[in-house]
Amino acid sequence: xxxxxxxxxxxxxxxxxxxALLPPAAVPRPTAAGLPxxALLPxxxxxxxxxxxxxxxAPGPATRAVEARRALAxxxxxxxxxxxxSVRVVAWDRDSVVxxxxxxxxxxxxxxGRREAMKCGVDVPPGSEEAAGRSTLEVRVPVRAQLWxxxxxxxxxxxxxxxxxxxxxxxxxIDVSGAARVLTLESMGGxxxxxxxxxxxxxxxxxxxxxxxxxxxxxxxxxxxxxVVVRGGAIRRGRLxxxxxxxxxxxxxxEGADVEITNHGGSVELFLPPDASGAFEVHTYxxxxxxxxxxxxxxxxxxxxGRELSFVLGRPAxxxxxxxxxxxxxxxxxL
Length: 335
Prior knowledge:
With 335 residues, the protein is mainly beta. It has helices spanning 13-21, 37-40, 43-56, and strands spanning 2-5, 8-11, 63-71, 77-82, 85-92, 96-104, 108-113, 117-123, 135-142, 146-151, 156-161, 164-169, 174-187, 192-205, 210-223, 228-231, 235-242, 247-250, 257-263, 268-272, 278-284, 289-291, 299-300, 307-313, 319-325, 330-334.
C-alpha cells in the first residue's frame, strides 16, 4: 500500500501482502489527496450502507398457503372475516365457494357450514389482535350470493357481483363493481368506491372519501370529514352528506331524479351539462352561492333563517335538486 505525506512516499510490506489477498474491487483506491475513499466518508453513511442489505433481507412473518372448496346455493349466505389483511372477492356463475390465499402460520384459517350458509376467514389467537400478521384471501362466490364481509386494516375488493353485500372495514378501502342489488358499505378511515350499477347503496365513512360512479336507483352517502363525489350522475334518488368534506356532482341529472345535498362547513360543487333540466333550490345560512345557471342573486329564505336561491332549467319535472349548507360555499357550474 502506498502512502503520501509531505512529498515522500513509503510502501509498507504488510500493505502489499494484504492487497495481494484481496480482489481488485476490494482494494482501497487512493483519492487525489492520497487517502482511501472510504476514509473520507462519514461513519454513519458507511454503517447505514452496511445495514441496508441486512434490513432489506429481513424475513417477514412466516405464512402458509390455504385453500378451501365448498358448495353454496346460488343465493346462499357467506360470511368472510379477516381482521388483518386484504380480501378480494370475485363473482362467478358456479354454485360453489373457493378460497385461496396465505395466512400467518400461528393463525387459524377456517371455512365451513351448510350449503345455504357458511363462514370463512382467519382467527387470531386471543390477546394477539394488535400484533396479528397480515393475511391475503381471494374468494370466488356465486354471482348472486348474500355476502357479509368484515376487515380490519386491509382493503376489500369485490368485482362482478350481483347480489347483496354488507362490507365493513376499520381503515381499509372498499371497492365494489358489478350489478349489485343492495350494498351496505362502511369504513372508518378508508375510501369507498362503487362502480357499475346497484339498486340501493348505503355508504358511510368517518374520514374516507366516497366515490359513486354507478347507476343507482337509491343512494345514501355520508361522511364526516371526507369528500362525497358522484361521477356520471346516474342516481335517481340520492342523499349526499358531509360535515367538513366537499360534496361534488359531475355529470347529467337522471330524468325525474330527486337529489338532496347537505353540508355544514365543506363546499358543494355541481358540474352540469348545458342542457341540464330540473328545479333547483339552494339554502344557506352564511355561505356563498355562485351559479352559471339562472339568477345569481340570493334572496331571503321564506321559511327559515338564512338565504336561498331558486331557479328552473328546461322542464321543471326533469329533476329536483336541493342543496342545504350552513357556511360552506356552493358553486353550480357548466361542464
